[in-house]
Amino acid sequence: MKRYAGPVIDPHHHLWDLSLGRHPWLAAKVDGGEMVYGSIQAIQRDYLSLDYHRDAARQNIVATVHVEAGWSDDDPLGETCWLDSQRRGGVAHRVVARVPLSHPDAIARIEAEAARHEVVGIRDIVSWDENPDRSFATRPGLMSDPAWREALAAASGLGLSFDLMLYPWQMAEALRLVADFPETFFVLNHCGSPADRTEDGMRRWRDGVSALAQAPNLRIKISDPVAYDPEWTEESLRLVIEHCIECFGPQRAMFASDFPVAGLHATFDEIYGIYRNVADGFTLDEQAALFFDVANDTYRLELDRLSLSNGSDA
Questions:
Q1: Which SUPFAM superfamilies is this protein grouped with (predicted)?
Q2: Per-residue pLDDT tens digits for 102-159
Q3: Which runs of E-coded beta strand occur in the chain?
Q4: How much is the pTM?
Q5: Cβ proximity of 136 and 125 under 8 Å
Q6: Which of 4, 103, 113, 191 has its CA 20 to 30 A from that of 76?
Q7: Domain range spanning residue 288?
């Protein structure tokens, strides 16, 4: 089986300039405190497009999707505007912007984001756990909240997709959400966040991913597989990655980095090297889907893979 050597889209990464004082989750843990994926001290530094290009230099990345990086609530549009200064070499070609859907002005904020041509989606993280160190959301049950859902409907009506970041113990609620919003395009982040690595926890994750894969309006982003597996091996990552692809198929799954967050536990080349090793078992067309086509379609990058291939196997 040939290995895909064509152009790659990275549909999930972050940039930040900490001097702006707009990323409270990074500033708050100056003692190197731990979140669900361990200490964040190593990423408490600026990460700009030049840093991304350095890390990704060997992977033939031709375009990226910037996903909101926890910009402060008072001015979420500020992140989208700031990204204009970072848009070079295909970085941040498209944007998934942050809008807290429970905010009283959520619909106006969504409309402001949608007016920007590069904004193709919204993310409002719903990952919640009883342990505050593991929670990204302020409270449980967001996906069932009527006001939150009203704002989601507004985003969908403006043609925006929704990036869905949650924990496996929230997947039953997510199943109801994606069923209730059949016209909304959802993207499950980070392999469905298999954070509980116990046998029961992984069984719940596998069952939840399998159930969610039945929803035709949902795709999966195989991103940051090391986040919840800091002592990873290629085999441990392969088990997660292959289950995602088995459930969704190569035509509804996409590889992504989640850099620099994934850099807490692996290099860019290590992550993409494992993606390439896993993809070796698929046809060239299926590999192209995982590395380029699904992201290109999902986030409306409007790129021509063949024209970017330069004669390589694609």
A1: Metallo-dependent hydrolases
A2: 999 999 999 999 999 999 999 999 999 988 888 898 899 999 999 999 999 999 999 9
A3: 8-13, 34-35, 38-39, 61-67, 94-98, 119-123, 161-164, 186-188, 218-223, 253-256
A4: 0.95
A5: yes
A6: 191
A7: 8-308
